[in-house]
Amino acid sequence: MLTGPALRERFAALDHWLCQHRPLWQEAPFTHAQLSWESAYPELAQWLREQTLEHAERYQGQPHLLRSAPTPFSALAAESVQLGQLDALPTHSQNTVAARYAVDIPGRKWQQIDAFASILPQASNNTHWLDWCSGKSHLGRHLLHRLGGELTSLEWDAALVDEARRLTNEHNLCASHHVQDVLAADCAAQLQAEHSPVALHACGELHLQLLRLASQANCTQLAVAPCCYNRIDGPDYQPLSHAAQQAQLQLSRADLRLTLRESVNAGQRARRLRDQSMARRLAFGQLCQQRLGTSAQQATPSIASKWLGLPFHQWAEKVAEYRELELPLSPSDDALEAQGWARLAQIRNLELLGNLFRRPLELWLLLDRALFLEEQGYRVQLGTFCPSSLTPRNALLLACKR
Ligand SMILES: C[S@@+](CC[C@H](N)C(=O)[O-])C[C@H]1O[C@@H](n2cnc3c(N)ncnc32)[C@H](O)[C@@H]1O
């Protein structure tokens, strides 16, 4: 767990390291055929390009375990582990919640919620939870069961709010569920000093808005597990804290995509379909380049994933038709799909180097939020609330007014 002066110290170390190695993580192999660092480390580049897709898959979420890659991979991996280290937050052993309350909640979500709740200190009777971007407010109801207090939840999807109300009634609980766009100007009025906001996986701008509004409203405690750091307004990341505003590192929305690269939760079938879709996109791009002299890789429509059951040439015909391209295809073009798979394997293996910077970059972003809350008069603890196997977005900021 990070707290006190360690927040600022780690932030400074990360800022320096991420800036120093920016060329190694900033360019995405998917969009750059040749990466600028390859000329500096030709042996590493060549080695990574020769590995299989299974190899990339094995190390994708744990690139620091890859020991056999040429230099400077191992040295960077050691630094990545040290700088990206985030320990678990202390847990509190309050009453657990009866398993029957978990019936309406998907298993993994239940485990995340239970872990999140175990981090929160014992509530008093007048604790008023504010479940931010609450979905069906599973988290809010869990806190009522487990810790008591009152509950208000905010969510903009009316169908989810209706479902939250139904579940709350079914469990004989008392709570207010509101349809609210948390980014709308009228949302500030929903936050009061007596609220204890909680946010489990509120995306980019949504949790940033909570940090701003909750500190303005002087809320005494808040607990936030951020996700989707790249979902921000505008093309550039606007740091919250003075420390990050003065930092060397400046980030674009494209840079923030690196934080999403770990996808431990996708099942085998989903991963296979995602890979096939990517491989075909790459093969189609190569085809357009060879026959039409254009690169169409970026423009493959998302609907193309629905046609994946077709042989490659028929799939490509449909994509070409959709994009109004004159691109004659025949069954012999099915062999081209293999080129897409080969290129995908290269991309995924080249990405392993950038993946060493994923957690450190996420931590830089988390520390920006933590330091902002400190500047607003909070004592902040930053750590994990569950293992990364349950969700790769397992970091939680716990802030209490000093
Ligand atoms: C990843 S889900 C998390 C839901 C819930 N916290 C949970 O863990 O189950 C994000 C939620 O934010 C809601 N949301 C997205 N944009 C919103 C907005 N502008 N205002 C309020 N809610 C929003 C979505 O409808 C969705 O329910």
UniProtKB/TrEMBL annotation:
Residues 108-233 form the Methyltransferase domain. It comes from the Bacteria. One of its GO terms (biological process) is methylation. Keywords: Methyltransferase, Transferase. InterPro entries: Methyltranfer_dom, SAM-dependent_MTases_sf. GO terms for molecular function: methyltransferase activity. This is Methyltransferase domain-containing protein. It comes from Atopomonas hussainii. The lineage of its organism: Bacteria, Pseudomonadati, Pseudomonadota, Gammaproteobacteria, Pseudomonadales.
